[in-house]
Design a protein that fits this description.
Structural class of chain A: alpha/beta
Oligomer: heterodimer
CATH topology of chain A: Rossmann fold
Largest sheet of chain A: 9 strands, mixed
Largest sheet of chain B: 7 strands, parallel
Helix content of chain B: 10-25%
Radius of gyration of chain B: 21 Å
Strand content of chain B: 25-35%
Distance between the termini of chain B: 42 Å
Number of helices of chain A: 6
Number of helices of chain B: 8
CATH topology of the largest domain in chain B: Rossmann fold
Number of domains of chain A: 1
Order of helices and strands of chain A: EEEHEHEHEHEEEEHEEEH
Number of strands of chain B: 16
Radius of gyration of chain A: 21 Å
Number of domains of chain B: 2
Shape of chain A: globular
Helix content of chain A: 25-40%
């Protein structure tokens, strides 16, 4: 079984986001970037499945600017076998990304495609579901447990009401939740080794996909700030404030 | 053209956020039709027809719809979509799972998780865990929009009498099989709609200690929330998680206990009307959004809190 894992480069989850003064977006210059956190879970799961002898190859793919390749290199350092970087500048909508990934799937013919359930920058939560629609494959979103069984996967999904278990036939798409596993750190020797692993570079425009934006971002603003609150001295004061001042209990 | 609302239900009754999504739909266009897809869902369809904002109900029945599988739902909605300008549903796990599948089939760029309808083609949505708000205009002919339910009031639930029209089911998608759903049943209010939420974080130190929170929640008629750290540590099940990748809650009162306040958690609760933080670390970021902060050891503060509540003559429910 061959697993394709899609990874995205985003602003690191620990960075305090700042909105640009001209309101065209958020500040990304000189800001720490990382792999989208649940994409790390997707790579980890694919590598674990390979280590368990149930997959033969793990291919990491990213779509984005020059520096997006760092995310593929990181995936190679934690166990992916080779990488693909589809080069394109500018902001891409999930629909465009899923169309590009569809082309990569046509070319690579993986049995499974894994990715994070949501990117923490645009918070769209769309790409995996869109890709599975375009391929007409089954989708297991928000996966917190995956059991590989021959040509099927049993996947536990995190849903609002609790947990749901489904069985999907391969080929299939799985979008990964943060609770799926504990991503490993890359060791120094593996980081060195990853430098020798191949990354194929593809120019997005060669794929013949319409990636023109359908959405216009008219402006980006700071959310309204909460006004500063107070510290109370003890529990009795807290309860009194809630009862008599805020009148919520 | 009219707006098509996708109803969320459990085959017996509507799920509450359908009413919030109906409000959002009615802000886009007054002609709102609602589709309900399920098995033996006639009672829920009737309930839907009673929402005054809904002008027509489309009911689709089939055994393969019993478990709300997106692969089965999407083709029906894609077929109906030709008559509609917008497809709307809630941005909870039901809508998040389903809507992109519809949007891709329609070759539409979805607008996810909106918090405001500015005009029929322009919407406000949070990005970066709510640290920025983006105003987005959709230039697609058909628009697929998911709405953040807590940002819209529920619509009236009675008084309407929309006609219910049957629609033919689509074929079953055979590569996805539902196995089971483990729902945690509780008599407490639902986290997403509760007036008061009491949440615990890593500071609770164990699942057993959550009983300190449970007691207070029961006394206040509150729902129980948790930070991701507490869920990851196994103190409490995932359906309680509040935050960027969990649930977004906007209660009148949110009490955060032993929660440091990572931005990912704040994303799920900082719109709450009144926020209380109880934490022994006075520097914890949760205090920056708290209206009332109590710097204290939660293992002393929570029993005292319970005592103080017991002293009150009345507690609002």
């Amino acid at each position: 079984m061959k697993i394709l894992v899609a990874v995205k480069r985003v602003i690191d989850y620990n960075v305090q986001i700042r909105v640009k003064e001209d309101r065209t977006g958020v500040v990304t210059d000189n800001v720490k970037m990382s792999t989208n956190p649940p994409d790390d879970n997707a790579i980890e799961e694919a590598v674990k499945i390979k280590e368990a002898g149930k997959a033969t190859e793990v291919v990491a793919v990213t779509v984005g600017e020059e520096k997006a390749q760092e995310t593929v290199r990181k995936a190679l350092a934690v166990g992916a076998d080779r990488g693909i970087h589809v080069k394109i500048d500018g902001i891409l909508e999930p629909l465009a990304v899923s169309k590009i990934l569809q082309k990569i799937v046509d070319k690579e013919k993986p049995d499974l495609v894994f990715m994070g359930k949501q990117a923490i920058d645009d918070d769209c939560n769309q790409t995996g579901q869109m890709l599975s629609a375009l391929l007409n494959w089954p989708q297991a979103t928000f996966a917190s447990k995956i059991d590989v069984k021959d040509n099927k996967l049993e996947v536990t999904r995190e849903i609002d009401e609790g947990l749901e278990t489904i069985e999907i036939n391969v080929p299939a798409i799985v979008t990964c939740d943060l609770r799926l596993n504990e991503p490993r750190y890359a060791s120094l020797p593996n980081i060195m080794k990853a430098k020798k692993k191949p990354i194929e570079e593809i120019v997005a425009s060669d794929l013949g996909v319409d990636v023109s934006p359908r959405l216009e971002q008219l402006k980006v603003e700071e959310p309204p700030k909460r006004k500063a609150g107070i510290k109370v001295a003890n529990v009795a004061e807290l309860v009194q404030k809630l009862k008599n001042e805020a009148k919520v209990i | 053209m009219a707006v098509l609302l996708i109803a969320e239900h459990n085959n017996k009754e509507l799920r509450p956020f359908t009413l919030n999504a109906a409000t959002a739909a009615s802000q886009i266009d007054t002609e709102v039709h609602a589709v309900i897809i399920g098995q033996n869902s006639a009672d829920a369809a009737k309930q839907l027809s009673e929402l005054p904002v809904v002008k027509k109900v489309l009911s689709v029945e089939g055994s393969h719809y019993e478990n709300f599988t997106a692969e089965n739902f999407a083709p029906v909605i894609v077929k109906l979509a030709e008559n509609y300008s917008h497809i709307i549903c809630s941005a909870n796990t039901f809508g998040k799972n389903l809507m992109p599948r519809i949007a891709a089939h329609l070759d539409t760029s979805q607008v996810s998780d909106i918090i405001k309808v500015i005009s029929p083609d322009t919407f406000l949505r949070p990005i970066y865990a709510g640290n920025a708000f983006a105003t987005i205009k959709s230039n697609d002919a058909k628009k697929c929009v998911t709405i953040r339910p807590t940002s819209f009031d529920p619509c009236e639930s009675t008084g309407g009498s929309a006609p219910i029209e049957k629609v033919d089911p689509s074929e079953e998608f055979s590569n996805t099989k539902f196995i089971k759903r483990e729902e945690i049943k509780s008599d407490r209010p639902e986290l997403g709609t509760a007036r008061i939420v009491v949440s615990g974080g890593r500071g609770m130190q164990s699942g057993d200690n959550f009983k300190l929170i449970t007691e207070i929640a029961d006394k206040l008629g509150a729902a129980i929330g948790a930070s991701r750290a507490a869920v990851d540590a196994g103190y409490i099940s995932n359906d309680h998680q509040v935050g960027q990748t969990g649930k977004v809650v906007v209660p009148d009162l949110y009490i955060a206990v032993g929660i440091s306040g990572a931005i990912q958690h704040l994303a799920g609760m900082k719109e709450s009307k009144v926020i209380v933080a109880i934490n022994k670390d006075g520097e914890a970021p949760i205090f920056s959004v708290a209206d009332y902060g109590l710097e204290a050891d939660l293992f002393e503060a929570l029993p005292q809190f319970m005592e103080e509540l017991n002293k009150l003559n009345t507690i609002q429910k």
